[in-house]
Amino acid sequence: IFKHWLIFSNNRIQYVKADMQEVFSRWRMGDLKMACELDRQPLKYLLDKNQLQSKTLMIIADKEAESEAQLKHLSLQRDELLEHYIRSQRLALALWRDNYTKGKGKIFKLWQELKKGAAQEEAQMQVMDAVEAMTQIKEKVRDMEKEN
Q1: Residue 91, domain member (yes or no)
Q2: In this structure, what DSSP letter does residue 148 have?
Q3: What is the 8-class DSSP label of residue 117?
Q4: C-alpha dist (Å) from residue 131 to 13, 128, 138
Q5: Which of 17, 20, 32, 34 could disulfide-pair with 11, CB 3.0 to 4.6 Å?
Q6: Which residues lie below 8 Å from residue 46, measured CB to CB, with a gap of 6+?
Q7: In a domain, 100, yes or no
Q8: pTM exceeds 0.70, yes or no
Q9: Is residue 139 part of a domain?
Q10: CA-based angle 63:67:69, to the nearest 5?
Q11: Structural domain of residue 56, as residue ranges?
Q12: Is the pLDDT confidence value at 18 over 70?
């Protein structure tokens, strides 16, 4: 017991520990003090206080219900926005894929046209070479006929 009182005295000297001890004492004895004070209050005061607290609790319950409704509404909106976002991402990927396929088709057609054009040019060159060869042969034939 002596040790306890020595610690208590030392704590009372140090202001930080003294404050903590005072707060702890108030916390531990607070309910008993409130009960004693309520016994001393008149009935009318207690009824008025009870009615005021009931009104306050009703207001708080209404606010909580309203907050809950808003929270549900916001959750639904969030879910809808996420669904729309996912759909938009899918549409964007589908559009990209379609554009890619369309681009490949255009490039393939262009390649075919260029290949066809190259083949036509090659055929034209062969025809021109053949015409040139025929012209040379005709000239040789004319020259031979002139010599004869």
Answers
A1: yes
A2: -
A3: H
A4: 125, 5, 10
A5: 17
A6: 38
A7: yes
A8: no
A9: yes
A10: 120
A11: 41-147
A12: no
